[in-house]
Every structure is written in C-alpha cells, then in structure tokens.
C-alpha cells in the first residue's frame, strides 16, 4: 500500500511540476491576460503551482523511503520519480502542445529509463 501511495503522490506532484514549469508557455497562447503578465507574475504563478507539487512530493518521499518504513531506497525513489516525470511530460506535451512530436529517439531514451528502473530494483 505504501508503494502505491508513494507512486500515486509522485504522479500528482509531477503533474503540478510540469504545469508549473511548462504550463505558462501554453497559457500565454490561450489567455490574453496571461500573455501580458510580466515575468515576475509568471514566476509567482509557477511558484503557486509548485507549492502543490511539494505538498505531494515531500510526503511521497517520506512515506516511500525505506529508512522511514517505506519500501524504496533513495536511489529507487529518484529513478521512479524521473520515469514518472518523463511519462507525465510526454502526456502533457502531446495534449497541450500538438505541434511537438514524439520521435523514435525519444522512445528509445524512454526505454533506457525503464531499463534503469529494472536495474535499480534488481537485487
């Protein structure tokens, strides 16, 4: 159960992170009021979203970390988080930025990350 909760919270965290890091690029295209925000306003908007990222990311790592009674080592947590980040980003960019294409080299890089997860969990 801790493993599922950790991964679910990391997914939610990464959705907020991706929106904070890249969502403003799409919002600039869709909302005229957002386009006219100064850079400081965009930064504050992203920080607002990043607050919710940390509200999920920090507890996920605390719950999931082996030294706190969780099922994952520190390295396992980091590799899981990186793969989740990539998956969330690919879904986000495919939905939000239709002009961006997912190419064979991106797929190969993703497979290497999946292989990294396998290797990190191999005893």
From TrEMBL:
Pfam families: DMT_6. It comes from the Bacteria. The keyword Transmembrane applies. Keywords: Membrane, Transmembrane, Transmembrane helix. The chain crosses the membrane at residues 6-25, 37-59, 79-97, 104-121. This is DMT family protein. It comes from Parabacteroides faecalis. The lineage of its organism: Bacteria, Pseudomonadati, Bacteroidota, Bacteroidia, Bacteroidales.
């Amino acid at each position: 159960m801790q493993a599922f909760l950790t991964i679910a919270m990391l997914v939610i965290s990464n959705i907020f992170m991706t929106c904070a890091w890249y969502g403003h690029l799409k919002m600039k295209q869709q909302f005229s009021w957002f386009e006219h925000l100064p850079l400081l306003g965009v930064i504050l908007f992203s920080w607002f979203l990043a607050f919710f990222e940390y509200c999920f990311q920090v507890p996920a790592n605390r719950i999931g970390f082996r030294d706190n009674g969780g099922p994952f080592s520190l390295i396992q947590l980091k590799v899981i988080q990186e793969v989740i980040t990539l998956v969330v980003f690919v879904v986000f960019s495919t939905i939000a930025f239709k002009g961006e294409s997912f190419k064979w080299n991106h797929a190969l890089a993703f497979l290497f990350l999946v292989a990294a997860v396998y290797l990190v969990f191999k005893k």
